[in-house]
Give the backbone structure.
Amino acid sequence: MANLEFLAGGYDLVEALRVDDQGRLYFSEMFRDGGVFRRSPDGHIERIVKDRKAVGGIAFREGGGLALNGRGLALWDERTGEIREVFTQWQGEPILHLNDLAVTRDGSIITGSWGFELPDSHEVAEAVTVEASEPLPSGSLFRIDPPAKVTKLDDDIIVSNGMGFSPDWRIFYVADTGRNSVLAYDVSPGWTLSNRREFSRCRPVRPTGSRWT
């Protein structure tokens, strides 16, 4: 039987969990006042990013700080507390919401947009876990190469979630929560994606996360 340990509580929706090399747990609160929190191994929890809502994805920066999703992709500097937006629109249209993200072996970020506004806490369950009466607008997959070069990789994903690479970096997976599906792509040099196919149909379960072990 697995041993369970209570780590933190009192949040509406916890997302974007990451653990750094010091064993500190990072996570976001999607609703209320938003923000990013950090839990130290001794149990101390601090809110390290205050002015950021709906953070669905977090990545560690090589020089310190974090890359954060939300209404676009931003970089947070821990030394100054500054948040610098690097990707907030595509072809003149604003990014409504970037959700999960994955980091390539050489530091690029792959992330997915939604084609609709992130629902509030009272609507989110119905919006992404129940069949909608009308199809929801879809979003896109993007790759952001340092410092901020953006390339669109694919379209027609309703709710991007649960992104990750296979252990050999040859296959990229992304869950489309809006379609109860996990998609797979072949990864080519330059971190381009091809040969999209459905890896798994998860009905009635809605896939939202993934982790290789």
In short: Residues 163 and 174 are 4 Å apart (CA to CA). The longest strand covers residues 192-201. The chain has a mean pLDDT of 88. The helical segments are 124-129.
